């Protein structure tokens, strides 16, 4: 990620903090006999990498990501597809995954074929896919890319124009994923309603 949201803190710093808190909360969540597994893909310049291997949250060791410019979304989607197809990382008996795509601009590589492959894959098609547009400079064209990714039009693309909204959104993701893991119907995707974030502070 690159650029600034016009706030005293860089958006990448806030994103790192939100993910760190989310991992801590997942690690201590009481979800019965199972565990919430988490993986994080970072994409910048001209490549994507598995920044955090897919492991139980309690085993994750978070290292802050750095903003280096560029948005190689296609590479990130290809890597996400590889991880989801790897049964050593995501066992066949696992619940449908939740994928959260965070972006602050237009893709800088070819992404459409990679997205189609992900959406056509067994796990990608069933995943609860969420998207966050960070910063006030996101164009309609950039947001249109994210709208193609999301799995539920009721959620749409969440727009985080300031750091408080990013923090609220990740708290909502943390709570809803934890609730899903405890649920008897875990494949029911949560729907984010406009008033929901008021419960999560700023």
TrEMBL record:
Residues 1-173 form the VWFA domain. Coiled coil: none annotated. It holds the Pfam family VWA. It comes from Streptomyces griseoviridis. Residues 183-202 are annotated as: Disordered. Residues 184-196 have a biased composition (Basic and acidic residues). This is Uncharacterized protein YegL. It comes from the Bacteria. InterPro entries: VWF_A, vWFA_dom_sf.
């Amino acid at each position: 990620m690159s650029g600034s949201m016009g706030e005293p803190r860089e958006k990448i710093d806030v994103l790192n903090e939100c993910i760190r808190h989310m991992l801590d909360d997942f690690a201590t969540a009481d979800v019965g006999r199972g565990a919430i597994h988490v993986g994080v893909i970072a994409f910048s310049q001209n490549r994507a990498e598995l920044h955090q291997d897919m492991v139980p949250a309690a085993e994750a060791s978070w290292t802050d990501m750095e903003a280096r410019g560029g948005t190689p979304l296609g590479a990130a989607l290809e890597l996400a597809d590889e991880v989801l197809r790897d049964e050593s990382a995501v066992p066949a008996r696992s619940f449908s995954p939740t994928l959260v795509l965070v972006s602050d601009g237009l893709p800088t590589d070819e992404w459409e074929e990679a997205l189609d492959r992900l959406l056509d894959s067994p796990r990608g098609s069933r995943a609860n896919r969420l998207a966050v547009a960070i910063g006030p400079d996101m164009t309609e064209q950039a947001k249109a890319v994210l709208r193609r990714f999301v799995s539920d039009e009721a959620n749409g693309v969440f727009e985080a124009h300031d750091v408080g909204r990013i923090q609220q959104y990740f708290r909502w993701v943390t709570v809803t994923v934890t609730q899903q893991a405890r649920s008897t119907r875990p494949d029911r995707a949560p729907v984010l309603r406009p008033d929901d974030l008021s419960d999560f502070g700023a």
